[in-house]
Write a structure and sequence with these properties.
Elements lengths: L2 H25 L4 H12 L12 H47 L1
Helix pairs in contact: 1-2, 1-3
Length: about 100
């Protein structure tokens, strides 16, 4: 995994959040904040239920958002976790090597 892959995934996730926000702002006539909030809680699978699409197009768009966005969201979390674990492992390895040199 490299930084370029992470950048692509996070950029794609940002584009999905922006696209979802614009979609729900236009289709459901929600405020920008409500459209953004709904997009984020849908992608994160929290789903408070305080906002629900009322139109058929909004419901179909939500389904598409879930199928497309959830995969990208999960990939972003996986890549960030992988980076964190890899960095910690590398730091431990370097510390062990430094201790061996000191002995």
């Amino acid at each position: 995994m490299n930084r370029e892959t992470l950048f692509i995934i996070l950029s794609t996730l940002l584009a999905i959040v922006i696209g979802g926000t614009i979609f729900f702002r236009i289709v459901e006539d929600w405020s920008w904040l409500d459209a953004y909030f709904f997009t984020v809680i849908t992608l994160s699978t929290v789903g408070y239920g305080s906002l629900v699409p009322a139109t058929a197009i909004g419901k179909i768009g939500t389904t598409v958002l879930i199928f497309v966005g959830l995969g990208v969201f999960a990939a972003a979390i996986q890549q960030l976790s992988h980076m964190t674990i890899h960095r910690r492992s590398e730091l431990r390895r370097r510390r062990r090597e430094a201790r061996k040199k000191d002995d």
